[in-house]
Design goal:
The chain has strands at about 15-20, 25-30, 35, 45, 65-70, 75-80, 85-90, 90-95, 100-105, 110-115, 120-125, 130, 135, 140-145, 150-155, 160, 165-170, 170-175, 185, 190-195, 205, 215-230, 235, 240-255, 260, 270, 280-285, 285-290, 295-300, 310, 315, 320-325, 330, 340-345, 350-355, 360-370, 370-375, 390. The protein is mostly beta strands and about 400 residues long. The strands form four sheets. It has a 29-stranded parallel beta sheet that branches. A four-stranded parallel beta sheet has the order 7-10-13-16, with no helix packed on it. Strands 25-28-31 form a three-stranded parallel beta sheet, with no helix packed on it. The model is unreliable at about 1-30 (pLDDT under 50).
Length: about 400
């Protein structure tokens, strides 16, 4: 019975191993990984010796266990106190109707995430949760946010030598503290939001979405400057992914500002924007599109018109195809663009400069969905598939 009359939910299973030697029989008893449900009240703390409530009968969690934060507790604020020893757990699972805060009692109080097959954070409801405690990764972490537009924020510092973080699911994982884990950050789906781009973990950042039409972005603001590659401090397109701006504009400069080509992105789909993006994201480099067809997916936030993707450098190509799809806006306004070929519009908006500046010698094809060309001044285009022309296979204008 927990404090306040609540019944503690936990199932204890044991395994017994009999070890025979020439001298004696030894019985070693070890607890299997358990699923534990928080039922604490306002006075309850999560410590190295107690979980669920402040009562002395409550057993601690251990590496590999799952701690569930759902309905049934009298408070949704959990105080983490590791001053008496490590507070260890394998997976944090958030669900139900309540929004939880896992706060730290003191500045150094830390959750240690550890499991034989990796550590996890799982989010399944339409609530946003906050982990204010520091997080020490004793295993690689997979954070799966299942609900778009919602997720988990870790405002404490995230550390772990030789450990990595993988963001999965369509929701948002926010890292607003300092991240010093050093074995890489993988974005497989959804949004990884980093409040301060300078606090992005020092390992390689890898975009790894196998689905080309699902948001897969690093969402931040300021200046993102990294080389393309697979080493520490670099960025790599193993699969599809890209960038979105949140809280302010985002400027992306790759390879020190040197010209790029589509092979720089490993011939993967480049993603811009997200359902939560608030500001423009800008790629500063010149891009040569000659190597292959270019695929750009522009996602959008329906609550703002500021979440524009901008290709600021000079776009060059010799009779190649650029496919722009998604419901967002891609701005290509550089009057020095020399690309030729065709822009296939598939439900997106392409914004040109005055009098169509930025189009170069491309022609526009409205291929699918409802697509729009934006410009101002005078835009004179013939119908057809020659340079500067426009043709319709689907609605557009």
């Amino acid at each position: 019975m927990g404090k306040g009359g609540k019944t503690m939910k936990t199932t204890v299973s044991m395994r017994i191993v009999v070890v025979a030697t020439s001298l004696h029989l030894a019985v070693v008893v070890s607890a299997r990984a358990e699923t534990r449900t928080w039922e604490g009240d306002d006075a309850a703390e999560w410590t190295s010796t107690s979980f669920d409530s402040a009562g002395p009968e409550d057993e601690p969690t251990a590496a590999g266990d799952t701690a569930v934060f759902g309905e049934g507790a009298t408070t949704s604020t959990v105080t983490v106190d590791s001053s008496g020893g490590p507070v260890a757990v394998g997976t944090l699972s958030f669900g139900g109707a309540d929004a939880y805060t896992l706060r730290k009692k003191g500045a150094d109080d830390t959750l240690t995430l550890s499991g034989a097959e990796g550590a996890g954070i799982a989010h399944t409801n339409e609530q946003n949760h906050l982990i204010g405690a520091n997080v020490l990764l004793d295993s690689d972490l997979t954070a799966t946010m299942y609900t778009e537009g919602y997720g988990v924020e870790i405002s404490g510092d995230v550390s772990g030598a030789g450990r990595s973080v993988t963001k999965a699911g369509e929701g948002t994982l926010t890292l607003s503290g300092a991240s010093t884990y050093d074995s890489g950050t993988w974005i497989e789906r959804g949004v990884l939001r980093v409040a301060n781009v300078a606090d992005l973990a020092p390992g390689v950042l890898t975009f790894n979405s196998s689905v080309n039409n699902q948001t897969t972005v690093l969402e931040t603001s300021g200046s993102f400057t990294r080389d393309i590659g697979t080493g520490a401090g670099e960025v790599h397109w193993s699969e599809h992914g890209g960038f979105a701006a949140y809280g302010g504009p985002l400027s992306v400069t790759l390879n020190g500002g040197d010209p790029l080509n589509y092979n720089s992105f490993n011939q993967k789909h480049i993603h811009f924007g997200s359902p939560s993006a608030t500001h423009p994201v800008m790629i500063e480099n010149d891009i040569d599109h000659n190597q292959n067809n270019t695929y750009i997916h522009v996602f959008y936030n329906p609550d703002t018109d500021q979440d524009v993707a901008v290709l600021a450098g000079v776009m060059s190509a010799n009779n190649n195809r650029v496919r722009v799809y998604g419901g967002g806006t891609l701005a290509v306004t550089n009057s020095a663009n020399t690309w030729s070929g065709d822009v296939w519009m598939e439900g997106a908006t392409v914004r040109l400069g005055k009098d169509g500046a930025g189009l170069g010698s491309m022609y526009v094809g409205f291929r699918s969905g409802i697509s729009v060309i934006e410009s101002h001044g005078s835009l004179n285009m013939d119908t057809g598939t020659s340079a500067g022309n426009v043709w319709w296979a689907n609605p557009g204008g």
